[in-house]
Design brief:
Four Helix Bundle (Hemerythrin (Met), subunit A); 5 helices; single chain; mainly alpha
C-alpha cells in the first residue's frame, strides 16, 4: 500500500512541475511572470504556452479524482495488489498525459486520459464491491 501513496504523492507533484514549467515559459515569452494577474497572462499565451497551462489544469482535475478513488479504496479495504496496480498505472498515464499534450498528440492524449479515468473507475468499483 505504501507504493500507492507514493504514486499519490507523485501525481500531486505533477501540477506543480507543470506550473513551474509554465512560469518559466511565461517569463521567456513576456519577460516576467504576472503574479498579480496570472490568469490574464495565461490567456495571452501562444498555443504552446496555452497547452502547458491546460495540461496543468487537467493535472489538478485528475489528481482530485485519483485522491478520492484511492481514499475510497483504502477505507473500504480493497485488495492491496489491485490498489497498487491501479495506482502505478494511473501515475504512468498521468506522466504521459502532459507529454502528449505538449507534443500535440491529441489522440494519444485522450487515450491516456481515458485510461487514467479507467484506473479510478476500477478503484471506485472495487470500493463499492468491498463495502
Amino acid at each position: 500500500m505504501k507504493l500507492s501513496f507514493l504514486c499519490l504523492a507523485l501525481v500531486l507533484l505533477i501540477p506543480y512541475i507543470l506550473a513551474t514549467y509554465g512560469a518559466v515559459y511565461r517569463k521567456q515569452s513576456f519577460g516576467a511572470v504576472d503574479n498579480a494577474n496570472p490568469r490574464a497572462q495565461a490567456a495571452q499565451l501562444d498555443a504552446y504556452g496555452a497547452r502547458i497551462y491546460a495540461s496543468q489544469q487537467n493535472a489538478w482535475e485528475a489528481a482530485t479524482l485519483f485522491s478520492a478513488s484511492l481514499l475510497a479504496a483504502r477505507v473500504t479495504g480493497v485488495e492491496s495488489s489491485h490498489v497498487v496496480i491501479a495506482s502505478t498505472l494511473f501515475l504512468a498515464f498521468r506522466v504521459l498525459h502532459p507529454i502528449a499534450y505538449l507534443k500535440q498528440w491529441s489522440t494519444f492524449r485522450s487515450t491516456v486520459s481515458t485510461a487514467g479515468l479507467a484506473c479510478c473507475a476500477w478503484l471506485l468499483a472495487s470500493s463499492v464491491a468491498a463495502a
